[in-house]
Design a protein that fits this description.
alpha+beta, five-stranded mixed β-sheet, two-stranded antiparallel sheet
Length: about 120
């Protein structure tokens, strides 16, 4: 998504939806940023991290950073993936609607990942 205001509206709409979902489940939610967006703690102190993705398109794929993948696969982390697709955005950058997909205890499997970019390190003299 090339428009940064539209991208931010979509991201915040998806994140707000995830916050509501976890708060309704009785968890305390803290917005932490990267590599996961939310830290959700229940009354017993059990922590769950949540990676949130929002898109205006169909729920076919999302882009992940290597840090997001490493974090989700780390044994010490319990991570959920929360994706809201088909979000509508008005010309005033108001996001609404969408279809949620909630993957609990998410660990991205190797067969589900496709490389899209590579960093090439230039030879040093």
């Amino acid at each position: 998504m090339s428009d940064p205001k539209k991208r931010k509206a979509v991201e915040m709409h998806a994140e707000d939806w995830a916050v509501r979902l976890y708060e309704e489940a009785g968890r305390t939610v803290e917005r932490i940023g990267k590599p996961c967006d939310l830290r959700c703690t229940n009354k017993a102190g059990d922590e769950r991290r949540v990676k949130v993705k929002g898109t205006t398109g169909a729920p076919t794929s999302v882009e992940l950073t290597i840090n997001e993948i490493v974090h989700a696969r780390a044994a010490e982390n319990t991570v959920d993936l929360f994706v809201v697709s088909n979000i509508k955005v008005t010309p005033g950058y108001v996001a609404s609607g969408g279809v949620p997909l909630h993957l609990k205890d998410w660990e991205p499997a190797e067969q589900d990942l496709r490389p899209r970019k590579f960093e090439y390190r230039l030879p040093q003299a």
